[in-house]
Amino acid sequence: MVSAKTIARAQGVCRLMSGGAVEFQGHCLSQQKVNAGNTVLVIKLENGSTYRFRGPSKEALQIETSSGLHNAQFRDGGTRNVFAWNDRGQAQRLAVRLETAHDPSPRYDNPSSTSTGSAIGAFAGALIGSLIQGHSGHGGGNQRQHAESTCLRAVSNQVGRSRDSLQIVGTERYKGGFSVRVNVPRAKAPWLCRVNGEGHVVQVEHTHPNGFL
């Protein structure tokens, strides 16, 4: 068996949409490989999910999911690429923005982030190492995920809505911990939740000055 050869690797920010809803937004790793004459594009999300697209060219890709093999469309925008496919009747869209610097608060549409074509194959930082090696320690990525999960639970309890109806819109470092902004249905502004370095919630409040509704 001939192993796949990696020809490009880049750190970036990804947004996964499923049926029009945001399923993931955060850091990711993009790899391009060649295996037995096929092009293989692998996107590894920071939450552990991996999407592998394979085909004779970028214009003829397929993705295999738990429901089977699906044709995938690929739009090459240089540093902004988009994959689209259907799975169980739901439209799936994975947008990838390649960048050259680790952004502690990833936003896919953040215009201030530096993006350049030279990003491909230029990264060997801690994020890439942890994704490739399956690192499961208490690094910044895992701490952020824990903070986000904790804040979703805290805001859910505060407003009396299910966690599935809430959406994280931003996460930033804050005094050794994290500050997480959460959208709540019908709220005029996001809720703010702060988690300290020990993973405990220290503040939950609505950011709109005139109240929740």
How would you describe what is shown here?
This protein has two helices and twelve strands; from the N terminus they run E-E-E-E-E-E-E-E-H-H-E-E-E-E. The chain has an eight-stranded antiparallel beta barrel with strand order 1-2-3-4-5-6-7-8. A four-stranded antiparallel β-sheet has the order 9-10-11-12, with helices on one face. Helices cover 13% and strands 46% of the residues. The chain starts with a strand and ends in a 7-residue tail after the last strand. The protein is elongated and about 55 Å long. It is mainly beta and 213 residues long.
Keywords:
213 residues; mainly beta; 8-stranded antiparallel β-barrel; 4-stranded antiparallel beta sheet; 2 helices; 46% strand; elongated
Strands, count: 12
- Helical residues, percent: 10-25%
Order of helix and strand elements from N to C terminus: EEEEEEEEHHEEEE
Shape designation: elongated
**Which percent band covers the strand fraction?**
over 45%
Provide the structure class: mainly beta
Which runs of at least 5 residues are low in confidence (pLDDT < 50)? 112-139
Provide the gyration radius in Å.
Answer: 19 Å
Describe the strand arrangement of the main beta sheet, using strand numbers: 1-2-3-4-5-6-7-8
Termini separation: 60 Å
Mean pLDDT: 78
Q: How is the main sheet built? A: 8 strands, antiparallel, barrel
Helical region count? 2
